[in-house]
Amino acid sequence: MVLGTPSTQSYIQSITSGAIGVGKEPIMRTLVSIAFVLTMAKLNAPVVRNLFARRQIMNGSFDPLRLAGTYGAFGVVAEQRDELIIESANDVKGPWKEYHFKVKPGDIYRHPKWISPYHYRLDWQLWIASQTGSIERNAWLVQLLLKLLRQEKDVMDLLDSDPWEAESQSDSTNGENNCPKYIRIEKYRYQYYNHKRDANENESNEQAIKQPFWKRERIGRYFPRQGVVTADILEEIVNY
Predict the structure, then answer these.
(1) pTM (global) more than 0.85
(2) In the chain, fewer beta carbons within 10 Å around the N or the C end?
């Protein structure tokens, strides 16, 4: 029994009879490919040495024609990092609930996650915003805050968890409205928790068992500088 379409069968017969060569390239193309590989291997030797250097050259070239070079946004990774923490509340007096994202630091007890090769762009952009100044240079954050207050599903799906999910479910049963009304962004400085340096001798056994992965300190308010904002205020800013 012969499997396949007539065109498939004829193709297989052509291969077996030698009428068609599979995997055979012209000699000239093979020589060019080998020459290219050897050339790039030689040109990239300084690039590889640069990777192991104590002071790496970033975004540089090592040959006159610039056929090989280095690229990288961060040659050195700092031991501290600033993070934006978004909080919302149903009452201006609190309690305030934090929004936790899929990979960015937030909860100090959550261990860092392995994210490669997927790129969590929202988490990344929030960190970039913490490095580039005020919210005026990151206007997209206003839209994000507005969508979080509205609890739009497409945006909530980008989070690790919705801090208001339990309240939203209870609202549907008892008729109350416990959804977030106010929102703000705080700025914190994170660093890895050092168990020898940061451990508190007076902490309880329960706290000692559940030790944090991060240590953080509040830097100050990122947005708004004073007070809080509501969905109406954010909508006015967006439509301004």
Answers:
(1) no
(2) N
